[in-house]
Protein backbone atom coordinates (compact mmCIF):
# COMPACT_ATOMS: atom_id res chain seq x y z
CA UNK A 1 0.00 0.00 0.00
CA UNK A 2 1.24 3.49 -0.85
CA UNK A 3 2.23 5.71 2.04
CA UNK A 4 1.14 9.32 2.45
CA UNK A 5 3.59 12.11 1.90
CA UNK A 6 5.30 13.32 5.08
CA UNK A 7 4.29 10.07 6.77
CA UNK A 8 5.66 10.89 10.22
CA UNK A 9 4.10 14.35 10.29
CA UNK A 10 0.81 12.79 9.19
CA UNK A 11 1.06 10.27 12.03
CA UNK A 12 1.61 13.15 14.48
CA UNK A 13 -1.59 14.82 13.25
CA UNK A 14 -3.62 11.60 13.46
CA UNK A 15 -2.39 10.92 17.00
CA UNK A 16 -3.34 14.44 18.11
CA UNK A 17 -6.67 14.78 16.29
CA UNK A 18 -8.25 11.32 16.09
CA UNK A 19 -9.02 8.31 18.26
CA UNK A 20 -7.49 5.83 15.82
CA UNK A 21 -5.48 2.97 17.27
CA UNK A 22 -1.71 2.97 17.08
CA UNK A 23 -1.84 -0.01 14.71
CA UNK A 24 -4.23 1.74 12.31
CA UNK A 25 -2.04 4.84 12.18
CA UNK A 26 1.12 2.75 11.83
CA UNK A 27 -0.28 0.69 8.97
CA UNK A 28 -1.42 3.81 7.12
CA UNK A 29 1.83 5.75 7.60
CA UNK A 30 4.22 2.83 7.22
CA UNK A 31 5.43 3.02 10.82
CA UNK A 32 5.72 0.43 13.57
CA UNK A 33 2.99 0.40 16.19
CA UNK A 34 5.52 1.08 18.95
CA UNK A 35 6.87 4.05 17.01
CA UNK A 36 3.38 5.53 16.88
CA UNK A 37 3.07 4.93 20.61
CA UNK A 38 6.36 6.78 21.04
CA UNK A 39 4.86 9.72 19.14
CA UNK A 40 1.89 9.71 21.51
CA UNK A 41 4.22 9.60 24.54
CA UNK A 42 6.35 12.44 23.19
CA UNK A 43 9.49 10.32 22.81
CA UNK A 44 9.45 10.19 18.98
CA UNK A 45 9.10 12.99 16.40
CA UNK A 46 9.69 15.69 18.99
CA UNK A 47 9.20 19.09 17.39
CA UNK A 48 7.56 17.68 14.24
CA UNK A 49 4.53 19.69 13.21
CA UNK A 50 1.43 17.70 12.33
CA UNK A 51 0.49 17.41 8.64
CA UNK A 52 -3.28 17.42 8.03
CA UNK A 53 -4.07 14.57 5.57
CA UNK A 54 -7.62 15.89 4.98
CA UNK A 55 -6.59 19.37 3.90
CA UNK A 56 -3.78 17.91 1.78
CA UNK A 57 -6.14 15.55 -0.05
CA UNK A 58 -4.78 12.28 1.36
CA UNK A 59 -7.73 11.20 3.52
CA UNK A 60 -11.40 11.94 3.79
CA UNK A 61 -13.26 12.60 7.02
CA UNK A 62 -15.62 9.73 6.24
CA UNK A 63 -12.66 7.34 6.02
CA UNK A 64 -11.39 8.50 9.40
CA UNK A 65 -14.86 8.17 10.97
CA UNK A 66 -15.25 4.63 9.64
CA UNK A 67 -11.85 3.65 11.06
CA UNK A 68 -12.64 5.16 14.46
CA UNK A 69 -15.82 3.08 14.69
CA UNK A 70 -14.16 -0.17 13.58
CA UNK A 71 -10.69 -0.95 14.98
CA UNK A 72 -10.11 -3.57 12.26
CA UNK A 73 -10.74 -1.05 9.47
CA UNK A 74 -7.61 -0.06 7.56
CA UNK A 75 -7.27 3.49 6.31
CA UNK A 76 -7.07 3.86 2.55
CA UNK A 77 -5.17 6.62 0.83
CA UNK A 78 -7.48 8.91 -1.12
CA UNK A 79 -7.44 8.31 -4.87
CA UNK A 80 -5.62 11.05 -6.75
CA UNK A 81 -6.56 11.13 -10.42
CA UNK A 82 -3.67 13.48 -11.22
CA UNK A 83 -1.16 10.84 -10.20
CA UNK A 84 -2.47 8.18 -12.60
CA UNK A 85 0.15 7.19 -15.16
CA UNK A 86 2.94 8.97 -13.33
CA UNK A 87 6.09 6.84 -13.26
CA UNK A 88 9.32 7.22 -11.46
CA UNK A 89 11.96 8.93 -13.55
CA UNK A 90 14.54 6.52 -14.84
CA UNK A 91 18.17 7.44 -15.02
CA UNK A 92 21.32 7.70 -12.90
CA UNK A 93 20.85 8.09 -9.20
CA UNK A 94 21.15 11.60 -7.84
CA UNK A 95 24.43 12.11 -5.99
CA UNK A 96 24.91 15.05 -3.60
CA UNK A 97 27.51 17.61 -4.60
CA UNK A 98 29.62 16.78 -1.54
CA UNK A 99 30.06 13.17 -2.71
CA UNK A 100 30.42 13.60 -6.46
CA UNK A 101 34.21 13.76 -6.30
CA UNK A 102 34.15 10.28 -4.71
CA UNK A 103 32.40 8.62 -7.64
CA UNK A 104 35.54 7.81 -9.69
CA UNK A 105 37.06 6.03 -6.68
CA UNK A 106 33.91 3.94 -6.20
CA UNK A 107 33.73 3.15 -9.93
CA UNK A 108 37.33 1.92 -9.89
CA UNK A 109 36.53 -0.25 -6.85
CA UNK A 110 33.53 -1.81 -8.57
CA UNK A 111 35.41 -2.39 -11.82
CA UNK A 112 38.31 -3.99 -9.93
CA UNK A 113 36.48 -6.19 -7.42
CA UNK A 114 33.21 -6.84 -9.29
CA UNK A 115 34.05 -7.11 -13.00
CA UNK A 116 30.82 -9.03 -13.53
CA UNK A 117 28.79 -5.84 -13.07
CA UNK A 118 27.68 -4.12 -16.26
CA UNK A 119 28.11 -0.42 -16.94
CA UNK A 120 24.37 0.04 -16.47
CA UNK A 121 24.43 -1.57 -13.02
CA UNK A 122 27.39 0.54 -11.91
CA UNK A 123 25.65 3.64 -13.24
CA UNK A 124 22.58 2.94 -11.11
CA UNK A 125 24.61 2.12 -8.01
CA UNK A 126 26.76 5.25 -7.84
CA UNK A 127 24.83 7.66 -10.09
CA UNK A 128 27.30 8.19 -12.92
CA UNK A 129 27.40 7.98 -16.71
CA UNK A 130 28.57 5.15 -18.94
CA UNK A 131 31.31 7.21 -20.67
CA UNK A 132 32.90 7.85 -17.27
CA UNK A 133 32.77 4.14 -16.40
CA UNK A 134 34.26 3.22 -19.78
CA UNK A 135 37.08 5.73 -19.34
CA UNK A 136 37.99 4.22 -15.95
CA UNK A 137 37.77 0.67 -17.33
CA UNK A 138 40.17 1.57 -20.15
CA UNK A 139 42.30 3.72 -17.81
CA UNK A 140 41.89 6.75 -20.05
CA UNK A 141 40.32 8.92 -17.36
CA UNK A 142 42.10 12.25 -17.02
CA UNK A 143 42.84 11.63 -13.32
CA UNK A 144 43.31 7.86 -13.38
CA UNK A 145 46.80 7.99 -11.81
CA UNK A 146 45.45 9.70 -8.68
CA UNK A 147 42.30 7.58 -8.19
CA UNK A 148 42.33 5.02 -5.38
CA UNK A 149 39.59 2.34 -5.27
CA UNK A 150 37.16 2.84 -2.37
CA UNK A 151 34.06 0.82 -1.50
CA UNK A 152 30.95 2.80 -2.57
CA UNK A 153 29.11 1.53 0.51
CA UNK A 154 31.79 3.09 2.74
CA UNK A 155 31.42 6.34 0.79
CA UNK A 156 27.65 6.32 1.26
CA UNK A 157 26.94 6.22 -2.49
CA UNK A 158 24.85 3.06 -2.23
CA UNK A 159 23.60 0.52 0.30
CA UNK A 160 25.19 -2.86 0.91
CA UNK A 161 21.89 -4.56 0.10
CA UNK A 162 21.77 -2.78 -3.28
CA UNK A 163 25.32 -3.82 -4.10
CA UNK A 164 24.66 -7.43 -3.09
CA UNK A 165 21.50 -7.54 -5.21
CA UNK A 166 23.34 -6.17 -8.25
CA UNK A 167 26.18 -8.69 -7.85
CA UNK A 168 23.75 -11.60 -7.45
CA UNK A 169 21.84 -10.52 -10.53
CA UNK A 170 25.02 -10.22 -12.59
CA UNK A 171 26.28 -13.64 -11.42
CA UNK A 172 22.91 -15.25 -12.20
CA UNK A 173 22.99 -13.81 -15.71
CA UNK A 174 26.53 -15.07 -16.34
CA UNK A 175 25.63 -18.47 -14.91
CA UNK A 176 22.71 -18.70 -17.36
CA UNK A 177 25.08 -17.84 -20.18
CA UNK A 178 27.59 -20.43 -18.97
CA UNK A 179 30.37 -17.90 -18.46
CA UNK A 180 30.35 -17.64 -14.67
CA UNK A 181 33.26 -19.02 -12.65
CA UNK A 182 32.62 -21.59 -9.99
CA UNK A 183 33.92 -21.21 -6.46
CA UNK A 184 36.55 -23.91 -7.09
CA UNK A 185 37.78 -22.09 -10.17
CA UNK A 186 38.07 -18.86 -8.25
CA UNK A 187 40.23 -20.57 -5.63
CA UNK A 188 42.68 -21.83 -8.22
CA UNK A 189 45.63 -19.59 -8.87
CA UNK A 190 46.88 -19.39 -12.45
CA UNK A 191 50.15 -18.06 -13.69
CA UNK A 192 50.50 -14.71 -15.36
CA UNK A 193 51.27 -16.40 -18.67
CA UNK A 194 48.06 -18.40 -18.52
CA UNK A 195 45.93 -15.42 -17.55
CA UNK A 196 47.41 -13.34 -20.38
CA UNK A 197 47.22 -16.24 -22.89
CA UNK A 198 50.98 -16.12 -23.37
CA UNK A 199 53.38 -18.96 -24.08
CA UNK A 200 55.10 -20.14 -20.91
CA UNK A 201 58.64 -18.91 -20.54
CA UNK A 202 61.50 -21.49 -20.48
CA UNK A 203 62.75 -22.57 -17.11
CA UNK A 204 66.21 -21.11 -17.89
CA UNK A 205 66.37 -17.59 -19.35
CA UNK A 206 67.65 -17.44 -22.90
CA UNK A 207 70.45 -15.08 -21.88
CA UNK A 208 72.22 -17.87 -19.96
CA UNK A 209 71.06 -20.84 -22.04
CA UNK A 210 73.76 -23.51 -22.37
CA UNK A 211 75.30 -22.78 -18.98
CA UNK A 212 73.11 -25.16 -17.03
CA UNK A 213 76.05 -27.50 -16.24
CA UNK A 214 78.50 -24.73 -15.45
CA UNK A 215 80.04 -25.00 -11.98
CA UNK A 216 82.55 -22.86 -10.20
CA UNK A 217 84.21 -25.71 -8.31
CA UNK A 218 85.41 -29.16 -9.38
CA UNK A 219 83.37 -32.22 -8.57
CA UNK A 220 84.41 -35.11 -6.39
CA UNK A 221 84.54 -37.62 -9.25
CA UNK A 222 86.67 -35.61 -11.62
CA UNK A 223 90.02 -34.28 -10.40
CA UNK A 224 92.13 -31.94 -12.49
CA UNK A 225 95.46 -33.29 -13.74
CA UNK A 226 98.57 -32.03 -11.96
CA UNK A 227 100.31 -29.37 -14.02
CA UNK A 228 104.10 -29.33 -14.39
CA UNK A 229 105.78 -26.38 -12.71
CA UNK A 230 107.87 -24.54 -15.35
CA UNK A 231 111.55 -23.92 -14.48
CA UNK A 232 113.32 -20.61 -14.92
CA UNK A 233 115.12 -21.63 -18.12
CA UNK A 234 111.99 -22.66 -19.96
CA UNK A 235 110.07 -19.70 -18.66
CA UNK A 236 112.63 -17.06 -19.75
CA UNK A 237 113.87 -19.10 -22.76
CA UNK A 238 117.53 -18.91 -21.61
CA UNK A 239 120.31 -20.56 -23.71
CA UNK A 240 121.88 -23.80 -22.52
CA UNK A 241 125.04 -23.48 -20.40
CA UNK A 242 126.96 -26.15 -22.48
CA UNK A 243 127.08 -23.92 -25.55
CA UNK A 244 128.63 -21.07 -23.55
CA UNK A 245 131.39 -23.31 -22.16
CA UNK A 246 132.43 -24.51 -25.63
CA UNK A 247 132.76 -20.91 -26.89
CA UNK A 248 135.08 -20.03 -23.98
CA UNK A 249 137.36 -23.08 -24.64
CA UNK A 250 137.81 -22.13 -28.29
CA UNK A 251 139.16 -18.76 -27.31
List the topology elements.
Blueprint: H1 7-17, H2 22-29, H3 33-41, H4 61-69, H5 103-113, H6 119-126, H7 130-137, H8 152-155, H9 160-177, H10 183-187, H11 192-195, H12 232-236, H13 241-250
Task: Tell me briefly what this model is.
The chain contains 13 helices and no strands. It is mainly alpha-helical.
Keywords:
mainly alpha, 251 residues
Q: List low-pLDDT spans.
A: 187-196
Q: Would you count the extended β strands for me?
A: 0
For the sheet with most strands, the description reads:
none
- Label the structural class: mainly alpha
Strand content: under 5%
Distance between the termini: 143 Å
Walkthrough of the structure:
The chain is mainly alpha-helical and 251 residues long. The chain has 13 helices and no strands. Helix 1 packs antiparallel against helix 2 and helix 2 crosses helix 3. The longest helix is centred in the C-terminal third of the chain and has 18 residues, at 160-177. It is elongated and about 135 Å long.
